[in-house]
Amino acid sequence: MSQETKPKSEAEFYQRDRRLHPPALTPDYKTSVARSPRYSMISLQNSISEMTGPVFGHNDIDPVDNDLISNYAKAGDPVGERIIVHGRVLDENAHPVRNTLVEIWQANASGRYRHKKDNYLGALDPNFGGCGRTITDENGYYFFRTIKPGAYPWRNWVNNWRPAHIHVSVFGSGFVQRLITQLYFEGDPLIPLCPIVKTIPDPDAIEQLIAKLDLNSTIPLDSIAYKFDIVLRGRRSTLFENRLEGN
Amino acid sequence: MPQKLDYLRESASQTAGPYVHIGLAPGAAGFDIYEQELGWDIAGPNATGERIRVEGVVIDGIGSPVKDVLLEVWQANANGHYAHPDGGGPVEDGFRGWGRVITDFETGEWAFDTIKPGPVMGRNGRMMAPHLNLWIVARGINIGLNTRMYFDDEAEANATDPVINLIEWEKRRATLIAKRSERDGKPVYRFDIRLQGDDETVFFDI
């Protein structure tokens, strides 16, 4: 691999573009009002504290942890639309993010979470847990098999419904890349109505969170596939020294 | 026509929501699914350094504890090395330096057991005082909040820490300093995080 495509590992990460991310205070999402800082963040240049992050290996997880159709099945398969969610974790330079932990969680086909705090009347599924995890391969590739989650109501305005979504957590190689986001599904009419989606000020950034129907990866007579690429912060090529240490 | 830069854009953040525990701490959500949950053992049995407990509560703008928070910690070992290929040096077998905890659903209290980190080499050869890097997500928090926890018994190192000294308002620096006490002969550091208001904790854009 050339020097250009493999930056020295001590290279700093690009600054986060806060204009594409939701700001902290987004009053239409009511809970944010009392949970958002009022002072500006202090911007830090990267030090070793920010540029490093936890390393996970295959010893940490079970190979079947990425199969939500089977990982909680007790007496049969869960009910609902069988789907595959797959894609790549890339950085802003379009380099694969290898061997990184991807964790997901979601409601079942009824829009009900297996969580003691969820009392929605949508039924629990005895064969569905709703969480999975995997580690990307050498190409940054990952996949999960699951049930397409249902929409569900939440107490924000009186008649708010979350679009079908899967929560996604990714690490990357440095703590600065730590990201939690949500995956939405192409064509869902609830997406433009959702106050949580609309915390994101940038329409292109919203579009980037919508998984696309992927017929080429669909398994005939078995499962529909959706493709979802995740982009983490990239790091600068060290054209000149960063001088992180020493003088 | 100007050249177009071909960078990708980072995926936008979204709140972790109220049920973050299902994915990241399913045992706490009330069900067993994984052989092992991640993030419970930060330092491992071989780590040198002082064993400490860190605890606190996250407080919202009303002054109420936030009861559905998930915190992650990233820290160096006692020699100031991170468990990462670019971490500055070797770490003990089993030292991970990363932890994940949730708050108690009734009280909002969180706690973790670890070792006290050593000072870490910062930019331009300036040493950083011992600190923990913390990341906080919850319902109502649209993008994870980064902060640092420093130790009140490291006053001398804190005074020259390059990050603390970036904070122009000296009064705000105090929001990053945990207070040491002893309980049953074991050191405990108290670190309450205030999301909003007069004593709002300093958060960093890292």
UniProtKB/TrEMBL annotation, chain A:
GO terms for molecular function: ferric iron binding; protocatechuate 3,4-dioxygenase activity. The gene is pcaH. Residues 1-31 are annotated as: Disordered. Belongs to the intradiol ring-cleavage dioxygenase family. GO terms for biological process: 3,4-dihydroxybenzoate catabolic process. Residues 14-46 form the Protocatechuate 3,4-dioxygenase beta subunit N-terminal domain. Residues 52-234 form the Intradiol ring-cleavage dioxygenases domain. Residues 1-17 have a biased composition (Basic and acidic residues). This is Protocatechuate 3,4-dioxygenase subunit beta. It is an enzyme of class 1 (oxidoreductase). Its EC number is 1.13.11.3. The keyword Electron transport does not apply. Pfam families: Dioxygenase_C, PCDO_beta_N. InterPro entries: Intradiol_dOase_C (IPR000627), Intradiol_dOase_core (IPR015889), Intradiol_RC_Dioxygenase (IPR050770), PCDO_beta_N (IPR024756), Protocat_dOase_b (IPR012785). Keywords: Dioxygenase, Oxidoreductase.
From TrEMBL, chain B:
The keyword Transmembrane does not apply. InterPro entries: Intradiol_dOase_C (IPR000627), Intradiol_dOase_core (IPR015889), Intradiol_RC_Dioxygenase (IPR050770), Protocat_dOase_a (IPR012786). It comes from the Bacteria. GO terms for molecular function: ferric iron binding; protocatechuate 3,4-dioxygenase activity. Residues 54-82 form the Intradiol ring-cleavage dioxygenases domain. CDD domains: 3_4-PCD_alpha. It is an enzyme of class 1 (oxidoreductase). Keywords: Dioxygenase, Oxidoreductase. The keyword Oxidoreductase applies. Its EC number is 1.13.11.3. Belongs to the intradiol ring-cleavage dioxygenase family. PANTHER family: DIOXYGENASE, PUTATIVE (AFU_ORTHOLOGUE AFUA_2G02910)-RELATED (PTHR33711), PROTOCATECHUATE 3,4-DIOXYGENASE ALPHA CHAIN (PTHR33711:SF9). This is Protocatechuate 3,4-dioxygenase subunit alpha. It comes from Paracoccus amoyensis. The lineage of its organism: Bacteria, Pseudomonadati, Pseudomonadota, Alphaproteobacteria, Rhodobacterales.
